[in-house]
Amino acid sequence: xxxxxxxxxxxxxxxxxxxxxxxxxxxxxxxxxxxxxxxxxxxxxxxxxxxxxxxxxxxxxxxxxxxxxxxxxxxxxxxxxxxxxxxxxxxxxxxxxxxxxxxxxxxxxxxxxxxxxxxxxxxxxxxxxxxxxxxxxxxxxxxxxxxxxxxxxxxxxxxxxxxxxxxxxxxxxxxxxxxxxxxxxxxxxxxxxxxxxxxxxxxxxxxxxxxxxxxxxxxxxxxxxxxxxxxxxxxxxxxxxxxxxxxxxxxxxxxxxxxxxxxxxxxxxxxxxxxxxxxxxxxxxxxxxxxxxxxxxxxxxxxxxxxxxxxxxxxxxxxxxxxxxxxxxxxxxxxxxxxxxxxxxxxxxxxxxxxxxxxxxxxxxxxxxxxxxxxxxxxxxxxxxxxxxxxxxxxxxxxxxxxxxxxxxxxxxxxxxxxxxxxxxxxxxxxxxxxxxxxxxxxxxxxxxxxxxxxxxx
Length: 458
What we know:
The protein is an alpha+beta fold. Helices cover 32% and strands 30% of the residues. The protein contains twelve helices and 22 strands. The chain has helices spanning 2-29, 49-74, 78-82, 103-118, 122-142, 146-149, 154-162, 165-181, 211-214, 284-287, 351-356, 447-454, and strands at 33-34, 37-38, 186-196, 199-208, 220-224, 230-239, 245-246, 255-257, 269-273, 278-282, 301-304, 309-318, 323-329, 345-346, 359-363, 370-386, 390-403, 410-411, 422-425, 429-437, 442-446, 456-457. The strands form four sheets. The protein has a seven-stranded antiparallel sheet. Strands 15-16-17-21-20-19 form a six-stranded antiparallel barrel. Helix 1 (2-29) packs across helix 2. It starts with a helix and ends with a strand.
């Protein structure tokens, strides 16, 4: 179902592009002849049935030709797309891995096939996509006991069925967040998901310091929908073991400001700006040189783990959802992303990554080796303890973890000194940089937001 939805989205977008191009040609070249090519009447409806049928055929051929050309230009080969159903959008474009051997011969046929499918029109793909999304949502509601237990009339039933799971969990968070956070031992509250057979349902997720704090959290919460129905939202409690902290340390390998005030962290990646200048990317609380979080420090010299000067602090900030900085690499300093396997590019993180538990790997300077885990949550608020013991809440963080084979509990991927480390998925795309962690989870800032804000790329 998910693969069919993804492919339908791709074809829907391509069909909209195709329609714009085909309509432009119909408006500008109808009735004209270019060289020996006569377009004939494409714009005006014919009175005679035979002529109208001929016009319709020419329009269909035009749409297929335009669709094929568009598919070739952006390399949207339907044969290749269908061969990568897990992430079909990652094989679109000439910047991706190019065909090899016999695959080159199949490329034109794959693009012609794409052109034929998108010539069906955006309305067709829009309606099909709407049907698939609705079916997927109803499938989850069909096996949800709340569908049969918590509604009193058809209006309430319909509202519950149409309500996305994230909206139900957000209703619970909005209503109960302050009350839950007031309970001793509670660290953070946000939207989460619980497995229900093959689907997932929305829940209110609560992170607590220890099992004692967990005993005071209710197992479910009631929210009222606009139609009057009351729905019970399950509560998921996770013991994280301690307050989440920024991954800085007094000792360890990696990168740090010469002042030494904020300890050491990790060089996440070497990035460049639109002018081609190269920078070290890490966290603001790693590269800055003092405890003033509103401006860059006077100390700008950035050192590597051996104490050698490698860069100068250039730009950085801490906001409600980011803690990032870059330092311009000194002349004569060699740089490379080879140790982190030269990520292909940067991509966004979606709810789909939570459902699939997308595999990730992290190379932190303190940890010293690549650690594997998976995406647990795509948008989480966490209050982090910063150097100086000040708390600062960052929102919209990626939550990462792994399963401890001994205890079967969640286990963090990082430790103190790993702040700034790049998070790379199993397709070698960079998705975030580590900002902190507790005993159960590691937290990462979304790299696509960082890249857009700073106008940088790998």
